[in-house]
Specification:
The chain has 18 helices and no strands. The chain starts with a helix and ends in an 11-residue tail after the last helix. It is mainly α and about 450 residues long. The protein has two domains: about 20-235, Up-down Bundle (Growth Hormone, Chain: A), CATH 1.20.1250; about 245-435, Growth Hormone, Chain: A (Up-down Bundle). The chain is about 80% helix and about 0% strand. It is found in: Membrane. Keywords: Membrane, Transmembrane, Transmembrane helix, Transport. Its main location: membrane. It is a multi-pass membrane protein. This is MFS transporter.
């Protein structure tokens, strides 16, 4: 992130503001805000994914079927989608500090409360409540960053923030395995109950800390000098040009590219989301039962995805080519998922296919988001990106319910992953056929 500041300075320094003072100002802001936000997003991802490991032990205790589990996972995303926009609007009225504190404390309490569910319906209700509690956290942070950083810095800072979710995926497996192995019976709670308690409490603590640590806007920051506040204000003011165009939302709805990109994202997200919530069950299907081993293997795709995100991003930037990079990545994931069924009984091969396929599905997400800004005209970009996100995000509801139903009906996750492979191939075809390269030529601003 420090390199981002240095790259930004030469083209954006204005008269009367030395590069050194700007660097010091933004470095202070980065080190004040970003560690907190990155840790918060890491805990956020852990508290979403912990249920995938708890499922391995709680099924017998609460008579949880795979279909009910899928509905529970989908209920989270349904609530998140429904309450995402109201939460963001509420943040603009009450401020980021109050909103983010409320979100973190509530999602932490709901996570801890999930430890005490006794029926599948209670789990579904708890996941729906978790979706309500978390709604607005990610878009709220993205909005919050616009209060502090100019766009030239915001891209790389946002990328660092997003990578924490992938790091969380690497942490969740080993952490869950350790908690469920060593804390079973503590406080009279079972292993899966302790998992929810131990992973939920940090969110509550961090949320309370955030009330004292976060500042709504630069002008309210008593940890910035008057000169530093002026520097930030002036840099942000440069981006608020009076001649900037704003399209109507009806124009967004008339743009075919929004629906094409939304369908592509729906297909990709179906794959990456299924990986996140069903991977531990898939690994146990390989014949493994030790929670620590399952946790360590579950971390492999996320570790490989970090490498894949970096290499794919670097290559696509170097060649200024997005479609075939993304399409190829999607097809690699689909191929590996399809071949999983043929690897039954071959542990090493199955783990390799699962790791590569899952890493490819996860790596496709940031690569996909390089396409909408080039596909949409500047006037409708903001509304179009939000619409694409909503279309794709609905996969969190549909795919999870479908996977759970298939697993309950057939007794096999391999059939469900075959279905996901087909969906991914459809997404690649929509991308490569429906969005020609000429539509992604750099648009004038």
């Amino acid at each position: 992130m420090s390199e981002a500041v240095e790259q930004y300075l030469p083209s954006s320094s204005t008269a009367g503001q030395s590069a050194q003072s700007m660097k010091a100002t933004y470095s202070k802001v980065i080190w004040r805000l970003m560690p907190f936000l990155i840790i918060a997003f890491t805990i956020n991802a852990i508290d979403r994914l912990n249920v995938s490991f708890a499922k391995l032990r709680m099924g017998e205790d609460i008579a949880l079927t795979d279909a009910a589990y899928g509905i529970g996972v989908g209920a989270f995303y349904l609530a998140y989608i429904l309450f995402e926009i109201p939460s963001n609007l509420y943040m603009q009225r009450t401020g980021a500090r109050a909103t983010l504190t409320r979100i973190m404390v509530l999602w932490g309490l709901v996570t801890v409360g999930t430890a005490f569910v006794t029926t599948p319906n209670q789990l579904i209700a708890a996941r729906f409540l978790l979706g309500i509690a978390e709604a607005g956290f990610f878009p709220g942070v993205i909005l919050y960053l616009t209060y502090w950083f100019p766009s030239a810095l915001r891209g790389r800072i946002t990328a660092a923030f997003l990578m924490s979710a992938t790091i969380a995926g690497m942490i969740t497996g080993p952490l869950a395995g350790t908690i469920m192995t060593h804390l079973d019976g503590v406080l009279g709670l079972k292993d899966w109950q302790m998992l929810f308690v131990v992973t939920g409490l940090p969110a509550v603590a961090l949320g309370l800390f955030g009330w004292f640590w976060l500042t709504d806007r630069p002008e309210h920051a008593n940890w910035l000098s008057a000169e530093e506040k002026t520097t930030i204000r002036d840099q942000l003011a440069l981006e608020h040009r009076p001649d900037a165009g704003h399209g109507r939302f009806v124009d967004v709805l008339r743009e075919p590219g929004v629906y094409l990109a939304g369908l592509v994202y729906f297909c990709i997200y179906s794959g990456s989301n299924t990986v996140s919530y069903w991977m531990p069950s898939l690994i146990r299907g390989f014949g493994l039962e030790d929670m620590r081993t399952i946790g360590m293997i579950a971390a492999l795709p996320f570790a490989l995805a970090l490498v894949g995100m970096y290499l794919l991003g670097r290559s696509s930037d170097k060649h200024q080519e997005r479609r075939w990079h993304l399409g190829g990545t999607i097809l690699v994931s689909a191929t590996c998922f399809f071949l999983l069924g043929f690897a039954q009984g071959h542990l090493v091969l199955a783990v390799i296919l699962m790791t590569i396929g899952s890493a490819a599905a996860l790596s496709a997400i940031p690569l996909f988001w390089t396409i909408p800004p080039s596909l949409l005209s500047p006037g409708i970009a903001a509304g179009g990106i939000a619409a694409i996100s909503c279309i794709g995000g609905s996969a969190g509801v549909v795919s999870q319910i479908a996977v759970g139903a298939i697993k309950s009906a057939t007794g096999s996750l391999y059939v469900a992953f075959d279905m996901i492979a087909v969906v991914l191939v459809i997404g690649a075809l929509i991308l490569l056929i429906g969005i020609p390269a000429k539509r992604l030529k750099k648009r004038p601003h």
